[in-house]
């Protein structure tokens, strides 16, 4: 399946400590290189990754309209994780209390919520991998401590 929509503008990255996300495990220094990543997103990484994602996503135009109406793409976060030598990300998601909150009139089932949340996680992963493979040539700054035991 393919989603035929124009890529949105890339998200503006805020200074958030990734360790504050309940699903994050980020170890290492606190230079998350958000300014550099935001610039790379604007220079084409976002559009390239978005188009690759749109070519294979299961999200249809109606579901994407929900994502757009809720402004979800603006809430992605990308950051450099020097310990893992990767671009980490946090994808926005529709909260569990979506029904009680009446988030969107076209949001009618848990299946749709699950599809949207999974698709946004896939978009985050695609952007992260695209940045690392095609745009970033930084070396990991992490160095193992000198006092590790010798296991030879």
TrEMBL record:
* Name under which the protein is recorded: DUF7992 domain-containing protein
User: Could you tell me which residue ranges the DUF7992 domain spans?
Assistant: 3-152
| Pfam families assigned to the protein according to its UniProt record, in alphabetical order | DUF7992
Where are the annotated segments for Disordered?
A: 1-29
> For bias kind Acidic residues, which ranges apply?
1-28
> Which InterPro entries does the annotation name?
DUF7992
Superkingdom in the source lineage: Archaea
Q: Which organism is it from?
A: Natronomonas aquatica
